[in-house]
Amino acid sequence: xxxxFDWQAGTATPPPDWNSLPMxxxxxxxxxxxxxxxxxxxxxxxxxxxxxxTGQSIACVCIDxxxxxxxxxxxxxLGDSDVQVRNVMTPRPVTCVASESTEQALDAMQQHEVRSxxxxxxxxxxGLVSFADVLRRTRAQxxxxxxxxxxxxxx
Length: 155
Prior knowledge:
Blueprint: E1 4-6, E2 11-13, H1 25-28, E3 30-31, E4 36-38, H2 44-54, E5 58-63, E6 66-72, H3 73-78, E7 90-91, H4 102-112, E8 116-121, E9 124-130, H5 131-154
Parallel strand pairs: 4-5
Antiparallel strand pairs: 1-2, 3-9, 5-6, 6-7, 8-9
């Protein structure tokens, strides 16, 4: 899928997003309307039900979009079903900002041994980025790069 190829000059113009690394968190994050957000006073059993219904395994714990913690399926299994989320959540989680590179986010995930990072801007939760989000986007980018280079080399 060459964007443009000039055989006489022997040059190709790649698609606009070709090799646009480093990718930014903004390029891959799950926006606020696609993630699970709960309150600290929500009951564990209710949040566990929401996990089952949505297929998600992490929720951001917020008070008026201000992130105060995260809770995972593993956290929920540690507490009684009738306790509040505040009793099982991880307070003050590691976060990132949308302008950071995905490489920085992956480094933070590895360093802190987590699979997802809440994305915060000006003290407000704006989304969530996971290892899987970055991997999906990286694979898609690599596939486009291979298609472009194949068309460039083999016509």
